[in-house]
Amino acid sequence: MKDVAVTGVVLAGGRASRMGGRDKAFAAVGGEPIAARTLRLFGAIFPQVIVATDRPERFHALGAETVADAFPGCGPLAGIHAAMRLARHPHVFVAACDMPGLDADVIRYLLGRIDVADAVIPRWEGDIEPLHAVYARRLLPLIEEALGAGRYGLRELLPELLVDYVAEEELARIRGAAQSMLNVNTPEELAAVGGRFADDA
To answer: Is the pTM of this model over 0.70?
Structure first.
C-alpha cells in the first residue's frame, strides 16, 4: 500500500552540459545508478511514478512510465507540465534526476504539508529547492499558459502561486535532509559523493 495519492515525478530532460553531456541519471552512486535508486524509492511511496524525459528508451529497462515534453527544450517547467498531463492524482512530487540521496522521510514530511497551497517547496542553504517539491495538478492550465507564452522559468512562476515554503530549520530536524537536497551537476560533485559512470576507467 502506497503512502498517499500523489504521483512521483522524476525530471530527466536536461542537457547535462555541466556533466559534459553525460546522462546524470545513470551515474552510479553506491554502486547503483541514481535513476534506479530513485525509481525504487518512489515506487515504495507513490502509486504512480513518471519519468519526464526525451530519452525514454533509457528508462524502459527500469520499468518506468515515461512521458516526453510537449514543449521540448523548455526546461524543468516543461517536464512538470508533461508529467501533470499524465498524472492520475491531485498532486505531484517532483525531483530532479541528479539527486542521489533522496530520503523517504524528507519526502513524506513534505507530502504531509499538502493542504490548500499550490506548492510545498523547501528552503535550503539560503535558497529554495523547487525540484524537490510538491505541486498541485490544478496548476496545469497556468503552467501551459506560461509555456505557450514563452515563459519557461519555474522560479518566475512561483510568485503567482500560493506556496508553502518549508523552513530549513524544520527540515534540518529530519536526519536525511541534507543528503536528500544534494544534487550532482558536475563531475566534481559526482566524485565528491563517490559516484562514477559505468564506462569510467
So the answer is: yes
